[in-house]
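for the writeup, i need someone to sanity check this before i put it in the appendix. the sequnce is what the collaborator sent (i think, or maybe the updated version? ugh). structure was predicted straight from it, no edits. if anything looks off just tell me and ill rerun, i have time this weekend
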Amino acid sequence: MTMFALKHSELRDLYDKVVAGERLTEADALRLFETKDLNALGAMADFARARKVGNHASYIVNRYINYSNYCILSCQFCAFSRKKRDQDGFELSIEQIVQKAREALALGITELHIVGGLHPSLPFSHYTGFLKALKALDARLQLKCFTAIEILHLAWLAKKSVRDTLAELKEAGLESLTGGGAEIFRKEVRSAIAKGKESAEEYLDVHRTWHQLGGRSTCTMLYGHVETLADRVDHLSRLRKLQDETKGFVGFIALPYQPDNNGIPVDHPPTGFDQLRTLAVARLFLDNFDHLTAYWVGMGMKMAQVALSYGADDIHGTIIEEHIFHMAGAKSPQLQTEAAMVKAIREAGRTPVQRNTFYEPIKVWEEPQAAALSAKEAGGDAGAQRTKETELASK
């Protein structure tokens, strides 16, 4: 939809607010969620995205490591956690974690994304131990680890305050918290899907404390289960308020609910329409966030490509060995090569950018015509780069 056509839509007044840079209210956000005019909503979100980041869209070369799926909680929506009595439970030693990292470094990763269940018996020293071991392996490797509920669990293990626990983990090598575990903040919904998990206030306070210590993190919203559209708006509003306060979130990730193998069957999981409108509303309402990720693991790569025109400016990472969403029924591949990420972004009409953990650019990929010219001028260096792309594509 062109901007001219948008001016004649039912969202004209909200479009005018967006163009003027005025903050949308919660009532505005709910109205955006309720509209059936997805084209107008997408055009507004795409305008807001372009104003923030231009034509760039990013990805990260990373690997996921789940150190264990043993967990003392029994969240109804989780298909990942296991008890010690379960035959398919697992836990990794520090040596096994380091070996997985070593193998991934050969593929050019810059980040390890490490989370797990709330293990009933591993000591606090295990967690600081693998952070230190990974930094010893390669000090440049960025360690993005732990959800807020894991931090509360580790504070209990260490018999320390959350602030002191985070400070000790940071000293051991932790560079970013993950955004997982936010689910939906509304108490009634949280009790229905994740009884016993940390409260919304505790989740936000962990991230607040981490930001006060100079740390950065991402945040998430798990949607498409038993929550209402108003619950989604409330969730986004709480994230926006904390971002106003700390400016510590580097990106927001909307996670579509995966309905298989868990205790919350949903007859109608998030549709493509719902996935696109959720990202679009988030882009417009979260005006203090620069980056929104379309999580290809939950959406599929083709839908993530489309989402780059509905407010998203990032499609996440190469990942390698994702468990949590796939155990809940995700049908996407276990990994993407860097070449596939670059190709997907180019096909969506964006300029691919390899980023680091904090959404800072590492490399901006030139257009193919410019790259060919550079190859002719640079000779061997460009040839080496093409060789690297081919090797990644063959993994």
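Confidence is low (pLDDT under 50) at residues 322-334, 369-395. Residues 49 and 311 are 5 Å apart (CA to CA).
thx in advance!!
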